[in-house]
Amino acid sequence: MQAKPRPAATPEQALSAMDHLIATHLVGQHEIAQQVGLSVTDLTCFAYVIEAGENLPTAGDLAARVHVTTGAVTGILNRLERAGYITRRPDPTDRRRIRVAAQPDAVARVREVYEPYYARLKELFADYSPDEIAVLNDWFTRASGMAANYLEEHCRTG
């Protein structure tokens, strides 16, 4: 596929467009979390458990990713476990730690809510050439890393 002509944009316009996307995403996350009976933080934590796949995260891993204390993540995990989203498993190498696994039926419920949105995003990506998608992927990856580093440097509370 050949790249389509794109309107010119300044970095300021791109930042404004990104801010609008993030704001809409935050509202959407809140709505989706309500649909599945979770808070946004709990849903975010569950997403990290899903993302980890077979490399089951520890409670400490999740606390660091969600930027909460280990005490707060215990509350999050308690709620997720009561709601049937996760199970806790002993760490095979350290009895003091637990690993967190997603429940397959909970993963299916959350994916069912997200699938129509992801289908629309895939349609949107179809308007871009492979080279443009590579640039988007590079930008998203690098911006995510930069944002995580910024949070680590400037927003850590504990």
TrEMBL record:
One Pfam family named in its UniProt record: MarR_2
GO molecular function: DNA binding
Keywords per UniProt: DNA-binding
Coiled coil: none
Cited SUPFAM superfamilies: Winged helix' DNA-binding domain (SSF46785)
Highest rank taxon of the organism: Bacteria
InterPro entries registered for this protein in UniProt: HTH_MarR-typ, MarR/SlyA-like, WH-like_DNA-bd_sf, WH_DNA-bd_sf
Gene3D superfamilies: Winged helix-like DNA-binding domain superfamily/Winged helix DNA-binding domain
Residue stretches making up the HTH marR-type domain: 1-145
Name the record gives this protein: DNA-binding MarR family transcriptional regulator
